[in-house]
Amino acid sequence: MSSTAEATARIAPRSRGRRWRPSPRATSWLQVSPLAIILVTFFALPTVIFLVVSFYDYDRVGIYPDFLLDNYKELLTTPATLRVYLSSLKFAFIVWGITLFLGFNIAYFLVFHVRSRAVRTMLFLACAIPFWTSGIIRTIAWIPFLGRNGVFNQMLQGVKLIDQPLEFLLFSPFAVCVTYIHLFTLLMIGPIANSLAKIDPALLEAARDAGASRWRTMVDVVIPLSKTGIALGSILVFTQVMGDFFVVKAMSGGQSASIVSQLATEIQAMQYPPAAASAMILVLFVAVMVGGMMRVVDVRKELVR
Amino acid sequence: MTARDPREKRPWTFYALATLMAVFLLFLYGPMAVIYLLSFQGPDGGVTFPMVGTSTYWFAEILKPGQMANIPVAFGRSMALATIVSIITVVVTVSAGLGFRRRFPGSAALFYLAVASLVMPSLLVGFGIGLGFKLFDWQADLFTSALAAQLTWTLPFGLFAMFAVFNRFNRTYEEAATDLGASAWQRLRWVTLPILMPGILGVAMGSFTLSYDEYARTTLVAGNRNTLPLEIYALISSATSPALFAIGTITTAVSFLVICTTLAVILRMQRRRATRSRLA
Known about the structure:
The complex is a heterodimer of chains A (305) and B (280). Chain A is mostly helical and 305 residues long. In chain A, 73% of the residues lie in helices and 1% in strands. Chain A is built from 16 helices and 2 strands. Chain B is built from 10 helices and no strands. Chain B: Residues 75-269 form the ABC transmembrane type-1 domain.
């Protein structure tokens, strides 16, 4: 196509910078190195540190290098551990189910039903903005709403639906679930909407033309094509609930504890080795669950092109 | 999606989902609206309705030095920390985003490291860093250990956002720049970065607000100087008064301001670009 003159003109300015040019691979390494260094130093290394400390010996004064399995033995044989894991898992599954339902339907609505781009952006922002308010504030926001004399009870009494205020609303497992859903539904909406937006609408039309019902189209076309988003959202919600420290403490009224709030108590008592052992178990648990979900869906293929 | 005839009859699912959306938004904003209202509670009012008059008494209460934990100072620290976090996050993730466009040995490992850092229970990150500092006998501080703890959260977030930004980027612009004789640096400075700028600003805003509201990662490593969320947390355990809601209202207003400013800048940028391309 191009003449020789054009070709030389194209090459000439390039060859000026030829003095030192790293290979593409080296360039990539250079570009990702700050990220790699920070994550290794401040994430991987500290994780190794508490792995090591979890085998240490301790008393009321300090911690001593050792290789003991006692911290783990003690942790795994107390019934309290099992109880708190079960209670956290229960919350995680309830919240996961509800946020998945809400997140998928809302994402579907935003992507396929809303026709104007401006309205879609606005609605999406409306969902996203509360996410940028402190989780602590959003948690305590439920207190005047759900309390015995709270807005919700007053409303129900106002329309004569109930005579006595409902007591189970605040400082209960119910309150914990409500708060989690309030905090984390966006983590579902975002990734699922991202997956749905990549589906070519022509596919849905094709399914309809081929005689598929709305339900069949959903099950056989939309859900398989959005499973990356579903997996990503599920991972985020699940890990947030398992790692929660504040919500259960503030909203359950002391009826249940979370794994991390128990751990925090140990940290405050300076019992670092048992806290580290407990942290290690939690990390393993979360890693296995997340690993399982990533097995089902290759999240990386979707994100990095 | 937009090609369809707008007069086409909506299926019943549209109305069902629209109702769900509306209920969800009410659910999202209802309790928040309640605390915004209650923060204007009169001086004699409590933490629930009814309102005993309206006043800005509780806002003044926050600003009074010594009265409560030092909210204005903590606010300043939070802003400073969030600014630094945001700058580092943008620089590091833009660079990493560029790097990840090629497959390189170790890219999978680094990707999963970032995923792990994102899903790690937040408090444990602070715990690990705190332990490390203790072992080396370093003093934990806001701009060392707390900064590091927050980066383990904002960097993966920023990285994944940058992936989305780069996915939408059309590489033919870069090829055109190279063909026209641009050096690698010129190409980055005058072609790639300007095109990516709205996404980059989004990452800056996102990481700013994530840092500004962060609690669980920071709490064990902040040293002696508390950030605003840490002060709020301390207040919750000690007292309940509408002052708490006033703080909530103010922090929301700040987040909102940051979001709106960023969006306005992005919109202006896009509009200017649109006019320019129309002129060309």
